[in-house]
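Service request form, structural biology core

Requester: graduate student, group of Dr. S.
Request type: structure prediction, single chain
Budget code: on file
Notes: please return the result as structure tokens.

Sequence provided:
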Amino acid sequence: MVKPKKHLGQHFLKNDAICARIAGAVSGFGGYHKMVEVGPGTGALTKHLLQKEGLELDVVEVDTESVEFLDEHYPALKGHIMEEDFLRIDWSERTIEPFAVVGNFPYNISSQILFRVYDFRDLIPEVVGMFQREVAQRVAAPPGSKTYGIISVLLQAYYDIEYLFTVDEHEFIPPPKVKSGVIRLQRNEVEHLDCDEVLFKRVVKQAFNQRRKTLRNSLKPLLTDHTKTTLEALLGLRPEQLSVEQFVEITQQLGSNPVSPA
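Core staff response, request fulfilled:
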């Protein structure tokens, strides 16, 4: 194994069995035929993804040395290496074909990757990835959990999410200071929420940005006298106590009874 350099906060898996296990978790859910691996590095996971029958692999890598290594050692990737920043690609302009997102994601941009998945959710039926364990747990956390937050609600509105397994620090080069977690997201049947989706995102963010407060306080700028009455049963709760469906209910009421501009 070629020892890679660390870049962009990434830690490279050295355990081939774990790489195979991550690749094996990519199910082809929803009938897609393309995968996009983010940050393949020197291809520890890539070689297993290339073996998946019926699924075509593209890789997105910003590190020039890694791109050169992949180009030399993985001839099957010829024409499928994008030396670009995953976060800057407008996928709706790049393709109309659905694709899975896979990777051992760099810790320092992993949340940004998930928000990008959220933005292009209609193109991405499945995600299988390794994150810092706390991030993975947060994404999969149920209502009532201390780790349940903005990204939990937004992604769970459109995806069924499973926490698959934990990976210890010593399985990486260089070893990180924290454990990692592998999760799988599969698109649910919700095409559109039964509310204003832009307002929904605003409500969720505003609620969790003041998560120690009840919704009556955190959402105060959005409330009218009418919505204070209709939502009375929910406004006494803190955001981590609410399900996705309850956030939708709040958004419906706020959208139907907006605050008048000053």
